[in-house]
Design a protein that fits this description.
This protein has 347 residues and is an alpha+beta fold. The chain has a single domain, classed as Penicillin V Acylase, Chain A (4-Layer Sandwich). It contains eleven helices and 15 strands. The strands form three sheets. An eight-stranded mixed β-sheet has the order 1-6-7-8-9-10-11-12, with helices on one face. Strands 13-2-3-14-15 form a five-stranded antiparallel β-sheet. β8 and β9 form a beta hairpin. It is globular, with a radius of gyration of 19 Å. 44% of the residues are buried.
Amino acid sequence: MPTYVVDLDLPPAERWTKLASDKKVEIKNLIQNLKNISDAFFHGKLIYLIDRFLPKLTETLPYPFADELKGISNATGIPLGEITMYNIFYEIFTVCTSIIAQDKQGKLYHGRNLDFGLFLGWDVQNKTWSATEILRTMVANIEFQRNGKTLFRSVQFAGYVGILTGMKPKILTLTIDERFQLKGGYIGLIEWILGYRTGSWMGFLARKVMENSTSYSEAKQLLTDTRLLAPVYFILGGNQSGEGCVITRDLNDADVWELGSDPSKWFLVQTNYDHWNNPPFFDDRRTPTIRCMNKLTQDNMTLPGLFDVLSSKPALNKLTTYTAIMQVNEDKWESYIQDCQEPCMPW
């Protein structure tokens, strides 16, 4: 996939101009796809409300995100409300598989599949999700730089300014998985619209962590203690043996599941269900992934081995857009656009 630089020394409105300009057709295609789907349910009224009211919501977003979204809107010619909708969509509609593991020497490895597009336009003839197919054309590696030096890396969908997958070289790695709860992201969104703005957008919080945290422990505290607008799983890795955890969050509380919490826990697998509960039979990516990790063994833990696990079905499925694998100490970062060939699970 292509690589772009986001220069954090530039004014926020100018940081994403190159990527947004290069991918404006793809961003427009995705938003049109979302419009087509919403029209089927809301007869065009939803997009009208988005275009009318979401620009006002944009003004309430924390610095520098409102200005960055305005810059993307200017670069693409897409209404600001629709760019904002696209960015907050990930707060409530992303499914994923993340793995953090350590080898026998205590070296940490972190990998993830990002799955997106569930219920967004199933193509019966081609057996694909329409939004997922478009998103694969929008993926890019990003080098976030300050003073001409790379501060951290991420994989981004063009037009999105939060962080879902990132690595700060020599310091930490972070991925985000959606958490399904009845009190989901829409609750936090409604609170924000009504003026109750004590919570953080999870993608923006992750960006703050990647920009400012100087250690695993500092990042862990921020991700554990900050009030959120949506339930989520933060999968966090550091640069020392044992520095890995899954932070299960709702809007206020957190459960921290530590790597190495018992002798068999040389790895943690997180999909979209709480680790203390069994996943539902219709979406059990966890059990096959654990089976693959046990077959790989700690002795053979490598980046290619981790990629093989994440490329095994059903961790790899029709919703998978990309795979990213990371080794923080050696500053190794690899990312791949993924496409699950038949036979393949729809999710």
